[in-house]
Amino acid sequence: MTVRIRLNSIAVRIIFALTAAAFCIALVMASVSRFVAATLADDRAVPDPALLARVSDLFPGSGRLHQRVAESELAKAAPDSKLARDHARSALRICPKSYKSAELLAAAEEMDGDSDAAAETLTRALLVAPNDAGLRWRLANVLLRRGRLDEAAAQLKLASALDPPIFAAAMDVLWRASGGSVSLLERITGGAPDQRVSAAVFLLKHYRIDEACRVFTSASGSFVPNSKRLEFVNNLIEADAAAEARALWLGLIGVESAPPVWNRGFETDIKTFRCRFDWTLKQSDFARLAIESGTGRGGGRALRLDFMSRDTPRLDDELSQLIVVRPGVNYELRFWAKTERFDAEGGPVITVAAAAKRVIGFSEPVSPGSADWRAYAFNFATPPSEGGRQAALVIGIQRQPRFAYEKPASGTIWLDDFELIER
């Protein structure tokens, strides 16, 4: 079918031409208006806030433009919260699913002192975007400022599940708002082992040692790598909680209880999961240390030190172990030593040191020559501690030269059967 329009009359032709021209002008104006509105609404543009407001009056149907006005107003040093609130509300009315507009409206409402309205606005926005961690974070902060801690904790837990990197900040903001509530902190961790470990470390930094150990223990299953476990044990030691650290370490390696000196006869392999509560061996330029089988005094193993025949020999904690003792108590440390062609101007001594390597007790030097197992012992008193907390001391080995030059040390020493006795 063909449609033909006959324009026989000049008047009809003029009317048609004018109509076509008006239509074209309207299209051009609409295109220009849309271009202007879109350009000003673009996040990459940084227009003058006053210009934005004027253009939004010309194009009241642009929700994005209203949103930009509200956003630019709230960014001012002295914002007009009412203006921002009106434009954010207009943007949300035009685009009900714009949760960004809801965030701006909530910010303006809270700035006006209407925190309850802000919480309600954000709650409605979450119906549209339930998986937006930023919305839940903002709602949690509004609720915290209103003192609605339980509701805030629920939102922080969900936000952290959606965006795990914000968990540390969530703990901090909830801790400060709640005045240090451990129960609320635990509530946002959920059952994720990594979050429970982070919560335990957080509690330890705030010197809540018992709670930190409990939270960590609840997460110390197979999903927690050994490096994290060891890091937490070391953090406990640094927090002057050596007794708790040792108890936790023993639990991690599956031991219920142990004497004060762990692995006293070197019969147990030094764990891959290394800790200062086990023996630590360090090689030096003057001696080589190794656990040797078949040479033990009472068992099958002993610690062997081979001196490297280098002059002016020095030893400084090539052997060490952290022990936990009661404060203000007298102790005796016993051990056994065997020598073979050991030759030096003075033998090494076994020491017990407190903080900052302050030696509080030491043995007589190991005798030179070749001799079978001989017992050594020395007494020391542990320093008092604040609140009667158990103290951490270090068993070590030292050999300090008396002169600037001494002849080389050679030969072998074996050490075995360390024992700490309370007097």
**Structural class determined from secondary elements:** alpha+beta
CATH architecture of the domain at 280-422: Sandwich
The CATH superfamily of the domain at 280-422 appears as Galactose-binding domain-like
State Rg. Answer: 38 Å
How is the topology of this model organized?
Layout: H1 10-41, H2 49-58, H3 63-74, H4 81-94, H5 99-111, H6 115-128, H7 133-145, H8 149-162, H9 167-178, H10 182-189, H11 193-205, H12 209-219, H13 226-238, H14 242-252, E1 280-281, E2 287-293, E3 301-308, E4 315-325, E5 330-343, E6 349-353, E7 359-362, E8 369-381, E9 391-399, E10 410-422
Antiparallel strand pairs: 1-4, 2-3, 3-10, 4-9, 5-8, 5-10, 6-7, 6-9
Helix pairs in contact: 1-3, 2-3, 3-4, 3-5, 4-5, 5-6, 6-7, 7-8, 7-9, 8-9, 8-10, 9-10, 10-11, 11-12, 11-13, 13-14
Description:
- The protein is of the alpha+beta class.
- Among the domains are: 200-258, no CATH class; 280-422, Galactose-binding domain-like (Jelly Rolls, Sandwich), CATH 2.60.120.
- The chain is 45% helix and 20% strand.
- The chain is built from 14 helices and ten strands.
- Helix 3 (63-74) runs parallel beside helix 5 (99-111), helix 9 packs antiparallel against helix 10 (182-189) and helix 13 (226-238) runs antiparallel to helix 14 (242-252).
- The longest helix has 32 residues, at 10-41.
- The termini are far apart.
- Mean pLDDT is 82; it is low at 28-46.
